[in-house]
């Protein structure tokens, strides 16, 4: 019986990864019945442990769907957030766009975030974002098909078969484990390959009052919450000894010998703003805000806002404005505006005179282009939102995208205001005259 319960739990994880939502709900109901049968007949003292497992699954599923999209008959619609021909941003490719995402490390260690097994909500969302929709199901981006192994159409041409980038999922890895997997991904990169490191973790604060070394004195992120190994050096920490469980920006410098794309979602993400280009390779970092406005802080356990925007910009827009339900007709019209936003942002970046060449090198890859453009949407949303007033509430990129040519461009602001009007949330954003 125990084997059967464990099988159900493992199978639910698989179904979550495949976005089989209806099947997950059926399995949760069946698992609850089997737990009741098992604990009442064999091991009553195991009731609490299995109930915690069941509650963890339910909380994870609830957190993964922060917004309800209602069809015309009031039935919920579950959108797919994988890459497909419908949501791949267009781009006029140039010879400079020569990098391809090949290796991905997804790291999670948020102490107060919903998780199931060794998968946090943030890890799950970014994993889905970095998968392709199956070609046979790509015409419907609102289904729940498993992750694909095919490339979307470009410029109307028939796609060639291409695998998804190789991924490592690391939940609370030790420093040595993280370095091993980073080195493995680094080693496997072909000449035109890029490595993506995504980290969703609590911050490790600076220990130096007057930082001098940008690689270590600004702190980093905690990849593993174990404290026992460092307790014996507690007295030395006060003299500037650093946390052995913290990943510092300087730890990544050896890996900048090859193209590196970073996404850091943490309350100390800005520690990674100093990324030297010792080896002349492309380096881009997308960094989350350090804080969220007070009205949104009680939602942090359901996943980070920054990762949510990278996963689903419209979900993020709804969450920061308190929208809980959206009619599908409105959602579809907003999606059309979002597609126009992505196309316009893509055009502005590729034509901007002051954009750093690193962005252009990464821009030819569909996944990395999607992340960059969703970051632009996120950044502009926070800029225009009345509650996100202050630098601690703003996302940043390294290198910075040009403000006048991209982030402050009136065409992008206008499209966001149009979406806000459709969702009836216009009052949450500054009016054009207030920004002058």
What does this structure look like?
By secondary structure, this protein is of the alpha/beta class. It has 2 domains: 2-63, no CATH class; 100-435, no CATH class. Helix content is 37%, strand content 13%. The protein is built from 13 helices and 14 strands. The strands form 4 sheets. It has a 6-stranded mixed beta sheet, with helices on both faces. Strands 2-1-13 form a 3-stranded mixed beta sheet. Strands 8-9-10 form a 3-stranded antiparallel beta sheet, with no helix packed on it. The N and C termini lie far apart (67 Å). Mean pLDDT is 83; it is low at 1-5, 138-161 and 228-239.
Compact overview of the structure:
This is Protein SCAI. Helices cover 37% and strands 13% of the residues.
Characteristics:
alpha/beta, 13% strand, 14 strands
The portion of residues assigned to helices is 25-40%
What characteristic shape results from the CA principal axes?
globular
N-to-C SSE string, H for helix and E for strand = HHHEEEEEHEHEEEHEEEHHEHHHEHH
How many beta-strand elements?
Answer: 14
Query: How is the largest sheet built, in terms of strand order?
Result: 6-3-7-11-12-14
> What is the subunit organization of this protein?
single chain
Strand fraction: 5-15%
Radius of gyration: 22 Å
| Overall pLDDT metric | 83
Q: Uncertain segments of ≥5 residues (pLDDT<50)?
A: 1-5, 138-161, 228-239
In the residues, how many domains can be counted? 2
Major sheet size, sense and barrel closure: 6 strands, mixed
What is the number of helical segments per DSSP (H or I, 4+ residues)? 13
Helix and strand composition category: alpha/beta
């Amino acid at each position: 019986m125990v084997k059967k319960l464990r099988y159900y739990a493992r199978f639910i994880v698989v179904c979550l990864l495949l976005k089989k939502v209806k099947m997950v709900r059926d399995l949760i109901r069946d698992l609850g019945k089997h737990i009741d049968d098992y604990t009442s007949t064999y091991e009553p003292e195991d009731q609490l442990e299995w109930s915690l497992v069941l509650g963890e699954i339910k909380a994870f599923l609830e957190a993964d769907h922060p917004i309800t999209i209602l069809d015309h008959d009031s039935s919920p619609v579950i959108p797919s957030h994988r890459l497909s021909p419908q949501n791949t941003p267009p781009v006029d490719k140039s010879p400079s766009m020569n990098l391809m995402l090949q290796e991905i490390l997804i790291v999670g260690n948020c102490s107060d975030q919903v998780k199931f097994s060794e998968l946090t909500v943030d890890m799950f969302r970014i994993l889905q974002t970095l998968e392709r929709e199956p070609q046979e199901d790509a015409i419907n981006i609102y289904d729940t098909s498993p992750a694909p192994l095919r490339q979307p159409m470009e410029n109307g041409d028939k796609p060639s078969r291409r695998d998804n980038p190789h991924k490592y999922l690391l939940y609370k890895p030790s420093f040595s484990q993280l370095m091993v997997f980073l080195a493995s991904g680094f080693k496997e990169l072909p000449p035109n390959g890029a490595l993506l490191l995504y980290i969703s973790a609590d911050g490790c604060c600076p220990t130096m009052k007057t930082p001098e070394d940008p690689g270590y004195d600004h702190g980093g992120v905690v990849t593993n919450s174990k404290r026992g190994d460092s307790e014996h050096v507690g007295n030395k920490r006060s003299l500037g000894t650093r946390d052995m469980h913290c990943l510092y920006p300087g730890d990544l410098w050896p890996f900048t010998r090859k193209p590196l794309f970073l996404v850091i979602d943490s309350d100390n993400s800005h520690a990674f703003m100093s990324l030297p280009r010792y080896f002349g390779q492309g380096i881009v970092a997308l960094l989350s805000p350090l804080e969220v406005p007070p009205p949104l802080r009680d939602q942090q356990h359901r996943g980070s806002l920054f990762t949510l925007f990278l996963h689903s910009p419209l979900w993020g827009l709804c969450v920061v404005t308190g929208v809980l339900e959206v009619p599908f007709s409105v959602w579809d019209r907003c999606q059309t505006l979002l597609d126009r936003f992505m196309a316009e942002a893509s055009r502005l970046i590729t034509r901007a005179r002051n954009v750093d060449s690193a962005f252009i090198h990464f821009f030819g890859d569909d996944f990395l282009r999607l992340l960059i453009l969703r970051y632009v949407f996120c950044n502009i949303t926070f800029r225009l939102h009345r509650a996100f007033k202050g630098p601690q509430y703003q996302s940043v990129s390294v290198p910075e995208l040009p403000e006048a040519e991209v982030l402050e461009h009136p065409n992008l602001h206008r499209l966001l205001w149009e979406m806000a009007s459709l969702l009836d949330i216009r009052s949450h954003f500054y009016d054009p005259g207030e920004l002058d």
